[in-house]
């Protein structure tokens, strides 16, 4: 498990990351590329000083927005490095992701991008597998990884020597990270890939949410419009495709989820407007039904701000007579935050550690 960025643990790592990114000593040799995924909060991005030779790449919409607002150059996509010329980069700084296939993809792509003499700095904690990533990288870089400990944070540095010395690179197994894959679970067919939440599975909470939505909406003549807020590969709208919604929309902050959902809907010939956004904050219309399996499952205290943001947006996006259905872990007191925004809050089901809550 990756440590949170909010506790004492995350502190050392953030300081190290910020110090490395603000170090312009290699700028004369070329660009520093910063690979950023979900594990840094947007507020912490402000400590990084933008400069011409620092470029970021992220798959998260709000990270891209925050960096752009700070004047930072940033690419937002599913870690597609194709726009960057090979051997153009002097240094890469990467706080490793949770998903191994993604880490391997970034190490492989990083190797291609680095100029001879350039270095890849992998940052993380012991339990992020940082030492293993360094060891694996040694095969490709054919050089010894240098491990440094800074408090509880680690940095493994891999240096790329002359390209000629490694004519047949031993690429790390990235499971072909960029490839979208057809998936089937029971009768449900969808398109997904690593990087998407529970990418080749059906989340049990989402399953309960879909079941409850069916019951609540059963018998209604007109269902109006529906929004899946935080859509992942699109499960909730795929599994309710038979319900007579007049219009369907889905949104997620993760570029890879938007890609998978768009492809899944197209494959099923289901017309859905899909947007990359932070909690749907750029959506202008209102919806009669909002379905949401929000991302604040693991520990409410650390994600209180996120819960607040989701509930504020759900209120704004819900039509006057609309209903929102959420599924959360049973121990999450979502009703407390919801009470500030909604008059009617009811628990529709408590099962298997989940609860489905209706808000209007
Ligand atoms: C628990 S998953 C549910 C995915 C999908 N609805 C399902 O049922 O399989 C939560 C989703 O919320 C997305 N998410 C996280 N933060 C978000 C944000 N700020 N705005 C929009 N979506 C977000 C995640 O990328 C993830 O796809």
- With strands numbered from the N-terminus, the spatial order across the biggest sheet is 3-2-1-4-5-7-6
- Main sheet record: 7 strands, mixed
**The top level CATH class name of the largest domain:** Alpha Beta
The number of helical segments is: 9
| Average pLDDT metric | 91
Bound molecules: S-adenosylmethionine
Q: Give the amount of beta strand, in percent.
A: 25-35%
CATH superfamily of the largest domain: Vaccinia Virus protein VP39
**Which parts are unreliable, with pLDDT below 50 for 5 consecutive residues or more?**
1-8
In quaternary terms, these chains amount to single chain
What structural class should be given to the helix and strand makeup? alpha/beta
Produce the secondary structure layout:
Layout: H1 8-22, E1 31-36, E2 54-58, H2 61-69, E3 73-76, E4 89-95, H3 100-113, E5 114-124, H4 130-141, E6 146-150, E7 153-159, E8 181-185, E9 188-192, H5 204-217, E10 225-229, H6 235-239, E11 247-252, H7 255-267, E12 273-276, E13 287-292, H8 304-317, E14 318-329, H9 334-338, E15 345-351, E16 354-359
Parallel strand pairs: 1-2, 1-4, 2-3, 4-5, 10-11, 10-13, 11-12, 13-14
Antiparallel strand pairs: 5-7, 6-7, 8-9, 14-16, 15-16
Helix pairs in contact: 3-4
The structure holds S-adenosylmethionine.
């Amino acid at each position: 498990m990756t440590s949170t960025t909010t506790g004492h643990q995350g502190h050392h790592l953030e300081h190290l990351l910020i110090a490395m990114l603000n170090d312009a000593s290699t700028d004369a040799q070329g660009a520093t590329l910063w690979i950023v995924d979900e594990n840094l909060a947007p507020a912490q991005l402000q400590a990084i000083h933008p400069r011409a030779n620092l470029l970021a790449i992220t798959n998260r919409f709000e990270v891209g927005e925050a960096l752009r607002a700070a004047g930072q150059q940033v690419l937002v996509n599913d870690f597609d490095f194709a726009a960057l010329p090979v051997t153009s980069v002097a240094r890469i700084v990467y706080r490793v992701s949770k998903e191994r296939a993604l880490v391997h993809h970034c190490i492989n792509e990083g190797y291609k991008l680095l100029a001879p003499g350039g270095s890849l700095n992998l940052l993380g904690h012991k339990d992020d597998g940082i030492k293993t990533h360094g060891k694996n990288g040694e095969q490709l870089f054919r050089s010894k990884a240098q491990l440094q400990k800074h408090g509880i944070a680690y940095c493994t540095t891999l240096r790329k020597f002359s390209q000629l010395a490694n004519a047949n690179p031993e690429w790390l197994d990235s499971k072909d990270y960029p490839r979208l894959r057809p998936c089937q679970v029971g009768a449900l067919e969808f398109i997904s890939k690593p990087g998407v939440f529970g990418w080749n599975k059906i989340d049990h909470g989402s399953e309960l949410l879909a079941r409850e939505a069916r019951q609540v909406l059963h018998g209604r003549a007109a269902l109006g419009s529906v929004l899946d807020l935080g859509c992942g590969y699109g499960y909730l709208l795929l599994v309710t495709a038979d319900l007579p919604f007049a219009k369907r929309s889905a949104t997620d902050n993760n570029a890879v989820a938007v890609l998978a959902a768009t492809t899944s809907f197209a494959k099923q010939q289901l017309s859905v407007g899909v947007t990359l956004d932070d909690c749907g904050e750029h959506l202008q219309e209102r919806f009669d039904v909002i379905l949401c399996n929000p991302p604040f499952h693991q520990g409410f205290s650390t994600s209180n701000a996120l819960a607040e943001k989701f509930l504020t947006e759900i209120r704004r996006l819900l039509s006057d007579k609309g209903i929102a259905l959420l599924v959360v872990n049973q121990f999450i007191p979502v009703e407390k935050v919801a009470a500030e925004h909604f008059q009617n809050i009811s628990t529709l089901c408590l099962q298997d550690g989940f609860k489905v809550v209706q808000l209007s």
